[in-house]
Design a protein that fits this description.
The protein is an alpha/beta fold. The chain folds into 2 domains: 178 residues, Vaccinia Virus protein VP39 (Rossmann fold, 3-Layer(aba) Sandwich); 56 residues, N-terminal domain of TfIIb (Single Sheet), CATH 2.20.25. 29% of the residues lie in helices and 35% in strands. The strands form 2 sheets. A 7-stranded mixed β-sheet has the order 3-2-1-4-5-11-10, with helices on both faces. The protein has a 4-stranded antiparallel β-sheet with strand order 6-7-8-9, covered by helices on one side. The longest helix is centred in the first third of the chain and has 14 residues. The protein is globular, with a radius of gyration of 18 Å. The chain starts with 12 loop residues before the first helix and ends with a strand.
Length: 252
């Protein structure tokens, strides 16, 4: 099974924000702000790893953080740069793969949200991401990230087709979950309005379902100390039915 996702979010980038308008970015940003303040990360650089179109990067910049955004999709970063022009925030965006990103120095904190890490489908490569995070975090720096759980892919998404129709764009999402490999594949057919016609685009995405235990074990191989885990962007404990888990780790 081919699970290379480097080319994901190309044609989808232009309509990504439209279909993500149900994500409570504002609430999530305040939750992240609370955690960053608690771990003394209000001052200093913060990296948004897998920043996409810069929605969260911009919100944290609104809250006074000095932001760097990293993503491997040039199309997504182009939209993020347009937002930067509108907001006039001094955000540095870097076109890099999170599996081998480079910075000019250390930073106070890193975040990675919206299940970006699920796109790393090989455990060894995810371990490499953690290695680079550890490498560029200051001692005591905090790493906050979320991931979709195996439960969500297996029990909620499974093998089904999802469709959504908007005036300017529509999509058909064909989802397949390979339980043995714990790989979730979704094939996107996008219909984007151009004048009086709609242009069709197609993309295939792969994500892997991880467990909290797996994440803890991978963190344990680095200098990133596991601090706590939440059921999504809440302060509720993780449950068997958690769809999204948020982890806070700190560099020893």
């Amino acid at each position: 099974m081919k699970t290379d996702t480097v080319e994901a979010y190309t044609s989808f980038a232009a309509v990504y924000d439209t279909f993500m308008d149900n994500v409570p970015y504002q609430m999530w940003s305040h939750f992240l702000h609370k955690q960053l303040v608690a771990f003394d990360a209000k001052e200093g650089l913060v990296v948004d790893l897998g920043c996409g179109t810069g929605s969260m990067t911009e919100l944290l910049a609104d809250l006074g953080y000095d932001m760097i955004g990293i993503d491997n999709s040039a199309e997504m970063l182009e939209i993020a740069l347009n937002k930067k022009v509108q907001s006039n925030h001094d955000i540095l965006y870097l076109l890099q793969d999170m599996r081998e990103f480079e910075l000019y120095g250390t930073v106070k904190a890193m975040i990675s949200i919206c299940d970006c890490l699920n796109y790393i489908t090989e455990a060894a490569e995810l371990g490499q991401v953690f290695h680079w995070v550890e490498n560029y975090l200051e001692p005591g720096g905090v790493f906050i990230f979320d991931f979709n759980t195996d439960y969500k892919y297996r029990e909620l998404l499974g093998n089904q087709t999802i469709a959504e129709n908007r005036e300017e764009c529509s999509f058909i999402w064909e989802n397949y979950y390979y339980e043995e490999e714990r790989i979730n594949e979704y094939q996107l057919s996008l219909f984007v309005k151009e004048g009086n016609l709609y242009r069709r685009f197609q993309e295939t995405h792969f994500q892997r379902g991880y467990t909290l235990t797996e994440m803890q074990e991978m963190l344990a191989t680095t200098k990133l100390e596991f601090i706590k885990a939440y059921d999504g962007f809440s302060e509720k404990p993780v449950a068997k039915t958690s769809e999204r888990i948020l982890i806070i780790a700190r560099k020893r």
